[in-house]
């Protein structure tokens, strides 16, 4: 059996993403071709955009599911030729910071979504996800969040794959091949990065900040002229079946026909592959790789826990400083109305900042601490189990 899947980060943020409505319409038009058995979409933040795409492709992919989560939704969905018989969503325990409004990951409440289908007699698990973005590569404050997300994704896939013949993961992992988050997903799920089987270099399959994309900033091209390969289609199969990659390519042209801009700020990825009879390729070497990635993940968690301790101390110091300023600064002044109102505004500002520091030192610090600690303990448990197998 031969299957074709597509994944695309649609960059569909209302009021922020440029040319959103035209691009979403063009994406729907492309998917109408009927070339794809399964489609994995990310950053479809506006539900009306999902409905538009689903309606456009209803004749060729009549089954779809949008995963609702968080405040504004996780933005992930799946379109399928086969009937969806079951769905599940796991929200990650760490999802960025609530006060980083410009990033918005926390408000999405993101995670990994699962749709199960029966297609040509095979039970297939379709997973879609979108890991936390790396906003500053030189100082990645979300590294621990992304590592825990990747490990939880691998757990989710391992826990739900047992009765499936084939598992397919599509999504924007916001991490490049060989990175820790990438290895945590591949090493612990037996998922194969289907692009690697083509033998093509990563430079030919880049999907983010590429030179041909109209939305790529000049600064990004200087930093990384070839772009990054961070969007993936991965697959695995049960004992007795194998996945053979036929081809993986970038299916969309660099510009929407008739317009001077691209379909998204990411490139789509299309994978064509066969499901054939064969033996499983899981080996003891994969267990050794799993142990290495788990040990590295533990180091990341330990570093994050130390940083949290420092952050908590700094927020308490800042809170104390602002309280002292509030106590020493007069609340009113009888001589000048301008000075009087300036003091009132200053008091209000200092009060708000003090409350923010108090929340960050207590509630938010504890939430992040427990999220990282839960991930660390789960990693330790898995690590002990794998070490006993070797």
From TrEMBL:
Location relative to the cell: Membrane
One Pfam family from the record: Exo_endo_phos
Gene Ontology CC entries for this record: membrane
Enzyme Commission designation: 3.1.4.12
Regions crossing the membrane: none
Pathway info: Lipid metabolism; sphingolipid metabolism; Sphingolipid metabolism
Domain of life: Eukaryota
Class of enzymatic activity (EC top level): hydrolase
UniProt entry keywords in alphabetical sequence: Hydrolase, Lipid metabolism, Magnesium, Membrane, Metal-binding, Sphingolipid metabolism, Transmembrane, Transmembrane helix
Membrane topology: Multi-pass membrane protein
Any GO MF annotation of the entry: metal ion binding
Family: Belongs to the neutral sphingomyelinase family.
Protein name: sphingomyelin phosphodiesterase
Organism: Daphnia magna
Lineage: Eukaryota, Metazoa, Ecdysozoa, Arthropoda, Crustacea
């Amino acid at each position: 059996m031969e299957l074709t899947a597509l994944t695309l980060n649609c960059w569909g943020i209302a009021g922020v993403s440029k040319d959103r409505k035209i691009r979403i319409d063009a994406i729907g038009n492309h998917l109408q071709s009927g070339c794809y058995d399964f489609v994995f979409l990310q950053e479809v933040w506006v539900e009306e955009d999902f409905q538009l795409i689903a309606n456009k492709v209803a004749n060729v992919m009549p089954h779809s599911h949008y995963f609702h989560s968080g405040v504004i939704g996780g933005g992930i969905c799946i379109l399928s030729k086969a009937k969806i018989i079951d769905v599940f969503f796991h929200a990650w325990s760490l999802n960025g910071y609530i006060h980083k409004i410009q990033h918005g990951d926390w408000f999405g409440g993101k995670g990994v979504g699962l749709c199960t289908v029966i297609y040509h007699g095979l039970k297939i698990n379709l997973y879609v996800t979108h890991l936390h973005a790396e906003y500053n590569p030189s100082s990645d404050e979300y590294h621990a969040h992304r590592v825990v997300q990747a490990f939880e994704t691998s757990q989710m896939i391992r826990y739900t794959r047992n009765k499936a013949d084939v598992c397919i993961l599509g999504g924007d992992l916001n991490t490049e091949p060989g990175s820790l988050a990438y290895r945590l997903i591949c090493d612990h799920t037996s998922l194969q990065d289907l692009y690697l089987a083509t033998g093509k270099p990563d430079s030919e399959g880049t999907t983010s900040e590429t030179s041909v994309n109209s939305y790529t900033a000049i600064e990004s091209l200087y930093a990384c002229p070839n772009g990054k390969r961070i969007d993936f289609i991965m697959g695995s199969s049960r004992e007795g079946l194998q996945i053979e990659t036929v081809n993986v390519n970038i299916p969309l042209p660099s510009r929407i026909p008739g317009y001077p801009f691209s379909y998204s700020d990411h490139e789509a990825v299309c994978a064509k592959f066969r499901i054939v009879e064969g033996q499983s390729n899981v080996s003891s070497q994969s267990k050794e790789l799993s142990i290495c990635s788990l040990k590295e993940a533990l180091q990341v968690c330990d570093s994050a826990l130390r940083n949290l301790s420092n952050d908590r101390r700094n927020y308490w110091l800042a809170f104390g400083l602002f309280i002292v300023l509030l106590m020493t600064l007069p609340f009113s002044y009888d001589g000048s109305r301008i000075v009087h109102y300036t003091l009132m505004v200053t008091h209000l500002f200092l009060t708000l900042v003090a409350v923010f520091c108090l929340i960050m030192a207590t509630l938010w610090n504890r939430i992040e601490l427990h999220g990282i600690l839960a991930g660390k303990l789960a990693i330790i448990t898995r690590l002990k189990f794998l070490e006993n197998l070797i």
